[in-house]
Amino acid sequence: MKKLSRIAFQIIGGANVASVLLMFFIGHAGWVDPTVWPKLSNMGLFFPIILAINFAFLVFWMLVKPRWVIIPLLGFIVCYGPVRKYFPINWPKDPPKGCIKVLSYNVWFYAGWEDRSKPNAILQYIKRQDADIVCLQESAENEVGSVQVDSILGKVYAYKDTAMHNGDYMTIFSKYPILSKEHIRYPSKGNMSCAFKLRMNHRDVIVINNHLETTGLTLDEKEQFQQMIKGELGGTAVTRTSKWLIRHLAEQTKKRAPEADAVARYIVYHRGTPMIVCGDFNDSPLSYAHSTIAEGLTDCYVATGNGPGISYHKSRMYVRIDNILCTSDFKPYACKVDNSIKNSDHYPIMCWLKP
Question: Based on the structure, what is the number of domains in the chain?
Answer without folding.
Answer: 2
